[in-house]
Amino acid sequence: MFIVDCDCHNYWCSATVLEPYMEGLFKDMFVRGERTGPRGAFPHGHRPWFHPEGFARHDVNPVEEDDNYLIMKEKHLDKYSIDVAILTGDEPIEASTLANPYYANALCKAYNDYMIDYWLPKDERFWGSIVVAPQDPHLAAAEIRRVGGHPRVVQVLVSHGAARPYGDPFYHPIYEACAEMGLPFAMHLGGQGGINSTPIGAGPSTFFWETHAILPQTAMTHMASLIAHGVFEKWPGLKVVIIECGVAWVPSVLWRLDANYKALRKETPWLKRLPSEYFKSNIRMSTQPLEQPANIQHLWATLEAMDGENTLMFASDYPHWDYDDVNKLHVPPAWREKIFGLNALDVYTRLPRPMAHAAE
After folding, report:
1. In which region does residue 254 sit, left (phi positive, over 0), alpha (psi from -120 to 50) or beta (all else)?
2. Phi and psi based region of residue 193 (left: phi greater than 0; alpha: psi -120 to 50; beta: remaining)
3. How many CB atoms lie within 10 A of CB 330?
4. CA atoms within 13 A of residue 163's CA, in its CB half-sphere
5. Full-prediction pTM beyond 0.90?
6. What radius of gyration do the chain's Cα atoms show?
7. Per-residue model confidence (pLDDT) at position 340
8. Kindly report the CA angle at 65 between 56 and 110, in degrees rounded to 5?
9. How far apart are CA 115 and CA 88, in angstroms?
10. Each residue's pLDDT tens digit, 220-240
11. 49: left (phi over 0), alpha (psi -120 to 50) or beta
């Protein structure tokens, strides 16, 4: 079976790996400026809660920078016969939390150059995501055009924590650049804190597990906003990937969106189809973390209601604490080939299709 892992985090031991890629006053700011974490941390506005065990698996303990790749190769790529690993970085998406958009953009540029220089040449299975700071969409669009043409870059990545819902016309320069470069736009769980709106509707929560369980609230908002503002009418070929935000909520939100659109469609006359139809044609969800009901049939019925056979893509979330084992993913057996690889080929069009045939 051809396997595409849509969420493989390429870690670093220290954010100081970015120093050679920065210059001028922003480099000085990065080296000498205030940090919210320990020495070597990436600058970001921090969350109100802390993970009680740390975010990484406890069997992933790099000492040297190269260990980050070697451990990934041994414990993930080779062990599970991953054919394609789409690198999603880790801390860099936290650039979205910074009030200074110019500094945030400089950090993203440094990360993208580092990722292209250091990670992509290491393994032919690696394909890259370029990170942008959405708080200045024009700078983000310029960055997409600067490095988005690299043949091994396959998507644009931001955090799901944001200052406003992603359908807002404020962000449209980003989608214009994505469409121009032929790249999907992906949002990954993260970016809570700093200038971003709280990801929890009623205000900050207290504990990590409590917060992690209800973080999909923000993804619901972004999905509704992207559809309602007509992003997929303006850019009908644009694919949006929602990563690590759960999936069981999707059918109920689409049911509500369809019902309310039918009753009040005059508010958004630019829409030509039902919200659920835009979802099926333009939005894809990563599997990790799938919900875990006691009766697996309840999950599968939910996945069927969102056309999961065609809208889900496998993600391991390596090396995070709730990493998904390829062999234990709870999806209907008849859907596995599509979810584990074939659906990703339709989204990440730069992945060579012969790779799938070669893996069979």
Report:
1. alpha
2. left
3. 14
4. 16
5. yes
6. 19
7. 96
8. 90
9. 10
10. 999 999 999 999 999 999 999
11. beta
